[in-house]
Amino acid sequence: MKTVYVAERDDSNLVMKKIIDISYTEWKKRGFSKCTLHYMKQNARSDKQFTLNAHVRERLEEWDQTASIVS
Model pTM? Predict the structure, then answer.
């Protein structure tokens, strides 16, 4: 019997663009460190696949919601 493992990828073009467009000051205001965003931006710019931790993914999803409220 083989176990099927399906990993959810977080490297869609929309997510990569969102990560690259986030400023360090705005990210810091949300409670994350500058180095977290730095490494996320490096991963988004590279051609390799990447995943995000659940708590980081939640913050990115919240980013969309609060950005639309502010606009």
Answer: 0.65
> Which structure tokens are listed for 60?
């990115």
Single-letter residue type at 37: L
Given a cut of 50, whether residue 63 has pLDDT beyond it is yes
Q: 5-55, pLDDT tens digit by residue?
A: 555 555 578 888 888 888 999 888 888 888 989 998 998 888 788 888 888
Determine the 3-state secondary structure of 6 from DSSP.
Answer: coil
Nearest to 38 by CA among 63, 56, 61: 56
Q: Pull the structure tokens for residue 56.
A: 């980081």
Please give the Cα distance from 24 to 38 (Å, whole number): 8
CB distance 52 to 40 below 8 Å: yes
